Amino acid sequence: MNEIVGQIQESYRAERIRVSYCVFDIGAYLKNLAEKGFIWILKEMKDLSDAEKILIDHYLIEYRANQIYDNLDDCLNMQTHKNNSAATSDKSTQSTTPTKEKQAKKQQHLEVRDVKQFIGYKKAKELETNIIELCKNFPSYEVDHIVNQIERSAGSIKERIEMGEQIYVGEKFNQYSIAIGSAKETSAWLQVSLGQKYITQVQFNELDNLTTQVVSILTKNLSNIKEKEGKGMDLPNPFTPNVKNFGAYTNALQLVDKIYEITDRREFRKEKDLVKIIRKRATSSVANLAEAHQLYIPKKFRFFNDSLKALDGLHSLLETSLIKGIIPEKELKEINELRISIRNVLSMKMKNISDEKAS
C-alpha cells in the first residue's frame, strides 16, 4: 500500500510540473483524482502550497463518499488495465506474468445485471419514496436539518446500489459498504424522528424494517460473491454488527432527546441560530456513529472520529449557553456525563481499530 501511495504522490508531482503549477489545470487533475477515490493520499504530502491544500480539502469533502482506503492495488490495476488496453502491444503481452493475468481476470468476472430488477434496489427505492412522502409532514424548522439529512441518506442507498452494479469485485464491495452505512444512518434519523414524535411507532417499524431488509440483501450478495468470485482477494467481512446493540448509540439517542428537550424551552426562544447548531451537533454524533457500522475499517474509524468531533463541538456550544445564562450548570453537568460516556466508548473503539491496523 505504501508503494501505491508513493506512486500516486509522485504522479501528482510530475503533473504539477508539467502544467507549470497552473491552478486551473491542477484543479482539474485533483478533481479527477477525487472522483477516482485517491485524493486523500495527497493530504500527507509535505510540499503542498496553500492553494493546493485548499483545493484538496475542497474535493475531499465533495467526493468524500468516493474515497477508497482499502485494496488500492486492485483499484489501481483496474484503471491501469482500462487506460492501457488499447495500447497493449505484443511485447507487453509477452512480458505479462501469469500472476498479473490471473489478477486482471479475477477483477472482471462479475456479471452486470439490470439493477432495477434487483430486489435490493427495489427495496431501497421503496424506502426513499416512503421517506420523502413522510417528511412532508415534518415541522418546517426541520427541513434544513432532519428532513434534508434523512432524504440524503435514503437516496444514497439506492444510488450506491446502482453504482455497485459493475464487473469489479472490489468496487462492488466498496459501493455496497457505503450503501450499508447509509442504511444504518437512515435508521438513526428515523429513531431521532421517532424520539421527537415526528413519526409514529408504526411508521418507524415499517421503514426501519425496510432498511434492515436492504442491509440483509446486500450482505447476502457480498457473502456469495466473496465465497465464489472473490476467492483469493483481500475482501472485508460483509457482515456488520447491529448498531442498536451498541451502548454508545443508545446513549447518543438519549443525548439527542435531552438536547431537544432543553432547547425547546422558553430560555432558548431568542437563540434560534444557537438552537439549530446545538441540535445539529447532537444528531450528527448519532448519525456518524451509526454510519460507522459498515465494512471497511478506515471508514469506520473516520465516522467514529466525526462523531467525536460533533460531541466536542456540542460541549463548546453548551458552555456558551451556560455563559449566556440559558442553561443551568447542574443540567450541563448531567449532559456532559452522558456525552463523556459516549466519547469514552468511541475513543476505546478507535484505539482498538488503531491497534488492529498496527498489528
Automatic annotation (TrEMBL):
Residues 83-98 have a biased composition (Polar residues). InterPro entries: 23S_rRNA-intervening_sequence, 23S_rRNA_IVS_sf. Residues 83-106 are annotated as: Disordered. It comes from the Bacteria. PANTHER family: FOUR HELIX BUNDLE PROTEIN (PTHR38471). NCBIfam families: four helix bundle protein. This is Four helix bundle protein. It comes from Cytobacillus stercorigallinarum.
